Amino acid sequence: RRREGQAVRGKSRTMMAIFHSRAAAFLLLLWSSAPSTTSFLLAPPLSTAPNFKASTALSAGSTDVSDLLYQEQEKIIIQRGELEETFVTNAKPLEASKIKIRGAGKAGGFGKASSNGTKASSKLEGKSYAKILKKEGVLRLDNVLSPTTADALRTYLYNLRTQSEQDVADGKVQPIERYAHVLLKHNRCDLTIPLGTEEIVTKALNESLRKSPVGGIVESIFGDGAILHEFSCLMSDVGSQRQVIHPDTPFVDGKGPVLYTCFIALQDVMMDMGPTTWLPRTHTREAHAAFKDPFTKDEIVSNTPAKLGLLPKGSCGIFDSRLLHCGTANRSNEGKSRALFYFSFKNPEVGYTGNPASIRLELGAENVPLGKLMSDLESFERGEGCPLIDELGRKMR
C-alpha cells in the first residue's frame, strides 16, 4: 500500500510539474492582457454563445484575446481531468441507501416512501437519510420519479433546449436567460428551467420533492425555510470532456453545509454516458485542506474510494455542495445524451454561496422557501391548484 502511494506521488509530482508549467504559461498570457479579461477565467467568453454579436464597445482585439484565454483555460482543464482519470481507479457504483422506519413503507419514491406513512414517520425517515448524507456527503435514492414522468420531462426539456438555442440565435434572449455557466461547455449545457409554465415540471417536482424522502431530508437539515437555489438540467452529449474534480462551494470553518443538490436521472445512466463521480466524505476541513495543497491534492483524489452515479431512470444522487465531484466524459457508442434534472436548496442562514446559481433569474429572485413550496405541491396533488407556482409561472420570461 505504501509503495503504491509512493508511486502515485512520484507520478503525481512529475505530471504536476508539467501541468504547472502550462498553467504558468497561461497565467503569463493572462498577465500580459488587459485586466478586464480576468473575468473570463470564471465564465465562458460572451463570443462563444450561440450567434453572439459583439457590442461595438468591445474591440475585435479584446474579443480575440478573451477567446484565446478561454481556449487555453479549457485545454488545461481537459488535461487535468485526463490526469485525474488515471488516479481514480477504485470507483464503484453509488448504491441506494436503505433504512427501516416503522410505518414508512419501503424505501423509494413517488408514493413508495413518504406518502405511505404518517407525517411523523416521514420526518423520521428524512432524519435517518439525513444522518447518512451528513456523514457520507452523498446519498442515492431510487424511484424518486416514475418512469412515465421521467420520460415526459426529458422530452419536454430537450424540446426546451432546442427552442432556447433558437431564441438565443435569433437574439430574442441573452444566453444567461436560458443557460447557466458550466465547466467545459463543449457538448454540455446547463439548461435553466421555468417553473409554473408546464404541468410536467410541477408534477416532477411534486414526485421528487414531496412524495419521495428528498424534501424531508432537506427539511431535517435546513428546516422548512431552506431556499430553492437552483432549478435546472445538466445535459451531456457525446464528446463532452471529463471535468476536473471540484467542490461547488468551499469549506468554511465554523459554518455548516451551504447547499444540498439533488441530481435526478431522466434515463438510465450507463458507464459510457459520463456518470458523475463523487468522492465520499470529502466535504470536511481536512479533505479541503489536502485538496488545496499541490503536494497532497492528487493523493486524496487517488486514495478516496470514488462512487459513480450509474443511476437508473428516476433515481437520484443528493450531495453536499462541498463534496469533491466531477462530471465525466460522455463516450457513448450509441450516441446517447445524458440528462440530469436537478434542484438545490440553500441554508437560509447563508447569503452568497460562492458560486452563481443555475436558475432562471426571475425564479431565483423570489427566494422560494421549501415549506411554502411543499404546501403548494400538496395542494397540487389534491387537485386544488398551486397558487404559488402559478404566480411564479406568470413571472417567467
Per DSSP E runs of 2 or more residues, the count of β-strands stands at 11
Instruction: Tell me the helix content.
Output: 40-55%
What overall form do the CA principal axes indicate?
globular
Order of helices and strands: HHEHEHEEHHEEEHHEEEEHHH
The number of helical elements comes to 11
Structural class: alpha+beta
Task: Give me the Rg, rounded.
Answer: 21 Å
Mean pLDDT: 84
Distance between the termini: 57 Å
Strands of the largest sheet, in order across it? Answer: 2-9-6-11-5-4-3
Sheet-strand content, in percent, reads 5-15%
Largest sheet: 7 strands, antiparallel
Poorly predicted sequence stretches spanning 5 or more consecutive residues: 1-60, 104-108, 111-116
Q: What does it look like?
A:
With 397 residues, this protein is an alpha+beta fold. The chain is built from eleven helices and eleven strands. It has helices at residues 2-32, 60-87, 119-136, 147-169, 199-210, 214-222, 285-292, 297-303, 361-364, 370-381, 387-395; strands at residues 92-93, 138-141, 179-180, 188-192, 227-236, 259-265, 276-278, 307-308, 316-320, 325-327, 338-346. The strands form two sheets. A seven-stranded antiparallel beta sheet has the order 2-9-6-11-5-4-3. The N and C termini lie far apart (57 Å). Mean pLDDT is 84; it is low at 1-60, 104-108 and 111-116.
